[in-house]
Amino acid sequence: CCLLIDQHGNTKEIQVTKADVFLMPPGQHIVVPFDGQLRAYGDAATLLSGACGRIVTDSKNVPINFESWTKVPKSYKDNCFNILKVYP
């Protein structure tokens, strides 16, 4: 269960899967809570992690010839972040 906020600031609890994140209508956002050490937690954090995983495992976004995320050029990382920002 996650907290959803729409473009009008209305909130509600929803059930959503990782696949559903990419199908949400524009203007709807899932609220991801962070703890005091700025670590995401809860169901929304799991969804965020899954969405990030789907983006970076697409070889068009990050070619698989990098041994680790730290070796991926900033331009690829920026592209992944920009793709993620497009989704609600």
Characteristic terms for this protein:
88 residues; alpha+beta; three-stranded antiparallel beta sheet; 35% helix
What is the compact description of this entry?
The protein has 88 residues and is of the alpha+beta class.
Structural commentary:
This protein has 88 residues and is of the alpha+beta class. A 3-stranded antiparallel beta sheet has the order 2-1-3, with no helix packed on it.
Find the count of extended strands (DSSP E, 2+ residues): 3
Poorly predicted regions: none
Dominant shape? globular
| Helical proportion, percent range | 25-40%
Rounded to an integer in angstroms, the radius of gyration calculated over CA atoms is 14 Å
* CA distance, first residue to last residue: 16 Å
The major pleated sheet works out as: 3 strands, antiparallel
- Helix-strand pattern, N to C? EEHEHH
Q: How much beta, percentage-wise?
A: 5-15%
Structural class designation: alpha+beta
Helical segment count:
3
Tell me the strand order in the biggest sheet: 2-1-3
Mean pLDDT: 84
Outline the fold blueprint.
Elements: E1 2-5, E2 11-14, H1 18-21, E3 29-30, H2 43-56, H3 74-86
Antiparallel strand pairs: 1-2, 1-3
